[in-house]
Design goal:
This protein is an alpha/beta fold. The protein has three domains: about 5-80, Orthogonal Bundle (Arc Repressor Mutant, subunit A); about 80-190 and about 365-385, 2-Layer Sandwich (Nucleotidyltransferase, domain 5); about 200-360, Nucleotidyltransferase, domain 5 (2-Layer Sandwich). The chain is about 45% helix and about 20% strand. It has a five-stranded mixed sheet, sandwiched between helices. Strands 13-12-11-14-15 form a five-stranded mixed sheet. Strands 1-3-2 form a three-stranded antiparallel sheet. Strand 5 (about 90-100) and strand 6 (about 105-110) form a beta hairpin. Helix 8 (about 190-200) packs across helix 16, helix 10 runs antiparallel to helix 12 (about 295-320) and helix 12 (about 295-320) crosses helix 14 (about 335-345). The longest helix is centred in the C-terminal third of the chain and has 25 residues, at about 295-320. The radius of gyration is 23 Å and the shape is globular. Bound molecules: zinc ion. The site of zinc ion has 6 residues, from loops.
Length: about 400
């Protein structure tokens, strides 16, 4: 059974009020009525309930009001609702409890490649210990999960994590909801990285954009009309599995020639091993690329040229307003993005390329975990966007 503040927030009218306050910061009751289209009576009832639950607070009077009684303004009480974000990656699991402004209340990050048993034990134990505190349990409106792979949106079941064996077909949403009675939302990491840009990053001003995530795999998240685009389900944006290279190496998807086999962090490490017979870790690879080690740079050059080629295809097909690059490789190798952009010249159609803004994410934090936070608040504060386009 799902209880707590979620029961109140799930009403469409209530979330209209909460979302108006999220966007506008401070509003009077009559502003709320005008913006949401709800009657003043409905606004009075809803705001009374929200004040009672400490999800909003009164903050004095409006300065713009001229004469007569000045209306009291309302704003979100940042500490009134919490989201729990879980970021499952190939080399770590991070769990974070945040308030409405994404301020961290609790955070835990464990490095390592987790089996299903180890990973779910860590997640369940952590949630259990957090919601022992009555205050946290009552304020928690949802759990957002980022996964590096495919999800069945109907059931919330993980379909496959290409670089994490043993997690396939795990009904993570159902398990956690049965255990804790809190709504669980699950989404692919590239889509969440795009959503994080829309909520917290430089993507706020774009209606249509593509986020390119360069990690151990390469994925893209698509935002169309400010909503995550999910196609017909399971997965979209599998840029890493476009067969555009001459590589004869079999990809984790089973096909040959995928971009992932040359341009992902994992692929560069494998190729370096192939050339030099040296097994190195990611940090060493990055250090050697940045110091222009001949073999590391050769591998890197192949990666950025292939990525530039693949992203040119995206520009020609989608012509988005912006393409935002993120992920550890983009952040750790400063020359990566300028070289990718250079590689796109002469491949993407020139007027479209000139018209598309291309930059790297400047979110200091991990995009996928911020996206998991946005996912919870989007699906609770804006239920009308529950069904992505
Ligand atoms: Zn592939």
């Amino acid at each position: 059974m799902i209880t707590g503040n979620y029961e109140v927030i799930k009403s469409i009218n209530t979330s209209l009020v909460l979302d108006a306050l999220r966007i506008n910061d401070e509003l009077s009751r009559s502003d709320l009525s005008r913006i949401t289209g709800l009657t003043t009576g409905t606004i009075t009832n809803i705001t009374a309930k929200l004040l009672d639950l400490e999800l909003i607070k009164e903050v004095g009077s409006s300065l713009q009001s001229s004469g007569g009684r000045r209306p009291v303004l309302l704003r979100l009480n940042d500490d009134g609702a919490y989201a729990l974000a879980i970021d499952i990656r190939t080399t770590s699991i991070e769990i974070r409890l945040v308030d409405l402004k994404a301020k961290i209340i609790y955070s835990l990050k464990k490095e390592g490649t987790f089996s299903l048993d180890q990973g779910t034990k860590l997640i369940i134990d952590t949630i259990q210990s957090l919601i022992k505190k009555e205050d946290i349990k009552n304020k928690l409106v949802g759990i957002g999960i980022s996964i590096p792979g495919w999800v069945d949106y109907e059931t919330g079941k993980i379909i496959k994590l290409p670089n994490l064996v043993g997690w396939e077909n795990y009904p993570i949403k159902q398990e956690l909801e049965n255990n804790f009675g809190i709504p669980v939302y699950i989404e692919n990491d590239a889509n969440l990285s795009a959503l994080a840009e829309l909520w917290f990053g430089k993507g706020k001003k774009y209606n249509n954009m593509v986020y390119v995530l360069v990690e151990d795999g390469i994925g893209t998240g698509l935002i169309i009309n400010q909503q995550i685009y999910r196609g017909s389900g399971i997965s979209i944006g599998e840029l890493g599995h476009i067969p555009i290279t001459n590589s004869k190496k079999q990809c984790s998807c089973g096909n040959i020639g995928c971009l992932d086999t040359v341009a992902s962090a994992k692929a560069m490490i494998d190729q370096y091993l192939g050339i030099t017979n040296q097994e190195i870790d990611y940090i060493t690879l990055i250090d050697r690329i940045n110091h222009q080690d001949k073999d590391a740079f050769k591998v890197f050059k192949n990666a950025e040229e292939s990525l530039g080629f693949a992203v040119s295809i995206l520009v020609n097909i989608l012509h988005p307003e912006a393409i935002i690059f993120g992920g550890k490789v983009i952040h750790d190798v400063p020359s990566f993005l300028p070289l990718v952009k250079e590689a796109m010249i002469g491949k993407a159609l020139s007027p479209m390329l000139q018209d598309t803004v291309i930059f790297s994410s400047d979110l200091k934090d991990s995009n996928s975990i911020l996206g998991a936070v946005a996912l919870v608040f989007q699906t609770t504060l804006q239920p009308y966007s529950l069904n992505s386009i």
